[in-house]
Amino acid sequence: MSAGTVGRLGCSNHPVWQVERARQLARAHGGTGFTAVQLHHTYLRPRPGTRPSVVHRFGAVTDEVLHYLEHHPDMALWAYTPLLGGRYTRADRPLPAEYDHPGTVRRLAVLDDIAAETGTNRNRVVLAWLAGGHPAATPVVGVSTAGQLDEALAGSPAS
């Protein structure tokens, strides 16, 4: 921000009750508090009873988080590891064991159908799904090549 202010103040990998408590404390002391949470979020879901191996204990979006965000429209969701480290499109990067269940097979089939219908690939569909979801998420992607950056930008709603 040109005035030296912060546009959004976020936290990462905290349970919802701590985020809300911090927001209440900030308000009680005349502050704004958190306006964003950064958590792991992607289209595939781990097997029930497990959690993604790529995240911190409280780092994955849950139904509780989605409910909280739906009822607090001033809060944004920043989604990290949305492409599972390339596992949607790279055969040399198999999905972790917690994703080995029938639900994954069905979800991947849907991604493939949408990608074929729109002339794109799974990564772009996942990024568009996140950005266009409810609540909408801002994907936080890591890239190591210009091609990967182009790919990520192609899945954003601004492109």
**Protein structure class:** alpha/beta
Largest sheet features = 4 strands, parallel
pLDDT < 50 stretches: none
| Radius of gyration (Å) | 17 Å
Run of helices and strands: EHEHEHHEH
Bulk shape: globular
How many beta-strand elements?
Answer: 4
What oligomeric assembly is this protein in? single chain
Spatial separation of the terminal alpha carbons: 24 Å
Helicity, as a percent range: 25-40%
What fraction of the residues are assigned to beta strands by DSSP? Answer: 5-15%
Read across the widest sheet, the strand sequence of neighbours is 1-2-3-4
Mean pLDDT: 89
User: Helical stretch count?
Assistant: 5
Describe what you observe in this structure.
The chain has 159 residues and is α/β, with parallel strands linked by helices. 36% of the residues lie in helices and 11% in strands. It is built from five helices and four strands, in the order βαβαβααβα. It has helices at residues 16-28, 63-70, 102-118, 122-132, 146-154, and strands at 10-12, 36-40, 76-80, 137-140. The protein has a four-stranded parallel beta sheet. α3 (102-118) crosses α4 (122-132). The longest helix has 17 residues, at 102-118. The mean pLDDT is 89.
Q: Features of this protein?
A:
single chain; 159 residues; four-stranded parallel sheet
